[in-house]
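Collaborator request, handled under Task 6.
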Amino acid sequence: MPNTLTPLELIARRWQPSAAFVRRAALATVVMAVIIVVTGGAVRLSQSGLGCSTWPKCTPDSLTPTAAMGINGLIEFGNRMLTYVLCAVVGLFIIAARARHPRRRSLTRLGWAQFWLVMSNAVIGGVTVLTGLNPYIVSSHFLAATALLTVAVLSWKRASEGDEDPRDLVARPARQLAWLLVAATGALTVIGTVVTGTGPHAGDAKKVHRIPLDWQEITQLHVDFVYIVVGLSVALWFTLRAVKAPAAPRRLLLELFACIAAQGVIGYVQYFMGLPEIVIGLHMLGSALVWIWALRVCLSLRDRGPLQEEDPGRPAPSGAHEAPEPQAASALSR
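Structure tokens returned to the collaborator:
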């Protein structure tokens, strides 16, 4: 019985994307993950969280918003439609990673991990609506988007390197310090969602249940963790200089400093200006960028060898060996 090829295998037989194309597709997933974070924040800040009153439909009788729902319905429905754009981008990365030769199963698995994170976050978003914007579900919705961003960044990095066993570029204590920085940044992000859950921007104009914690105290804890992240970043900077780390990790760490500094300024501005929506939106964008660069710093401290651009064992295209070289043909005719 002949083997049945899957659609991905059929595509792989007819299309061999370049390594650069796979990298660009991976970067596109990172960009879309950031956009999803920002647009999700826009839904909440514009009080459109219940712009569609139910899920998966927008209303009990309509899949799309009606004219009576106004701008809030359009904003919420537009954010839902972005999920399909995100799926298309992730799908392109999966196809490109699968069609690439030599085949890299680890890269394809990362693509599928992104797909299932998108699906799970769509369900969490639906539960958020069905529970009337429960603040704990809202927080988990943001954290799931952050998990998607994490896998997208890892995919981007893996698409740019080889498949050798990881080799540390610095001493293990330096790498452990970098992982501690990532952990502290992750904790900062989690606490940030709690600040959001206790704050005034619930996502709807109606009174919505909030996390029963003192907003001032949880905000102060958030600030304390900012100082921890800054301190760990400074410690890592001096450590990398002391061990003469490669230039790339040190450059990325400086870029992380810039992101943290900008994020700190935005944070204080939003606090003293009474939490204006546009500034909070910038703060959410900043949180995504800080997380990306913290991951990039940590991942830059190990090496997995050069990326193999082409598969030397892959057969040449059909017809490539049908005719001998001109000199060889002449020699054979003698």
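The cover message to the collaborator said: "The mean pLDDT is 89. Residues 164-306 form a domain with the Four Helix Bundle (Hemerythrin (Met), subunit A) fold (CATH 1.20.120). Please let us know whether this matches your experimental observations."
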